[in-house]
Design brief:
about 220 residues
Length: about 220
């Protein structure tokens, strides 16, 4: 399911930016060093986004952060949209363990609302852990970029729709009888909780409070 989502997103990227990423598909086996450098560049782009925001994301800034010669990033990603899309798809890759974790829970369902809330809160806690919170910040910088850049927005929305579909498919395990109706609500709730925990220190919730919020959702689902 998740692999399907990732492949669709890569096709969306290829359609938007021509051969920017397609070349990687054809050279991964023959030139692993090329793939390694591409990954290094994209990871550096995410770090720049987290530290400096969208305004700080330039090809030269990524070159500096990656410790590569000037022009390296533009060689792999000639446009800003191509770089942003590659960064988004890298986050999708990083999300794979959490997605598998959710999928692994399905056979044990349906869960009571409180238990479903506890399981989702555990995933949120992992997203906000010290070694992953930076990635969540970079993700929301990409949200802002999608708001401003229609071409990138198309690729971003494609991935977002796949996660909406995934959420809809997972919700019955939480006892939800109307998953299509409630999947967008759950994504909105998760976005709100993450934004609050990341950027609103005055209103940070305890884990118990987060579970309470989530439980109220699952009771109404």
């Amino acid at each position: 399911m998740f692999v399907l989502s990732f492949c669709r997103a890569e096709r969306a990227e290829a359609a938007l930016f021509g051969n920017t990423t397609g070349v990687v598909t054809t050279t991964l086996t023959a030139q692993p060093k090329v793939a390694d450098r591409r990954e290094l560049i994209v990871d550096a782009a995410l770090r720049v986004l987290e530290a400096e925001g969208g305004r700080g994301l330039t090809h030269r800034a990524v070159d500096r952060h990656a410790g590569l010669p000037e022009g390296s990033t533009s060689n792999y990603f000639p446009t800003r949209e191509a770089l942003l899309t590659a960064a988004m798809l890298r986050i999708v890759e990083f999300d794979q363990p959490a997605v598998r974790q959710m999928e692994d829970l399905v056979p044990g369902g349906p869960y009571e609302p409180r238990r479903a809330a506890e399981l989702v809160a555990e995933i949120i806690r992992g997203t906000l852990s010290p070694d992953r919170a930076w990635l969540a910040v970079a993700r929301y910088e990409l949200v802002l970029e999608a708001r401003r850049r229609p071409q990138f927005r198309a690729a971003f929305n494609s991935v977002r729709r796949e996660f909406l579909l995934l959420t809809e498919q997972l919700l019955p395990a939480a006892g939800c009888t109307q998953p299509r109706e409630h999947a967008p609500e759950l994504l909105a709730l998760l976005d709100g909780l993450l934004v609050n925990q990341l950027f609103q220190p005055a209103t940070v919730l305890s884990e118990a409070e987060m579970v309470d919020y989530l439980e109220r959702f699952f009771v109404s689902c």
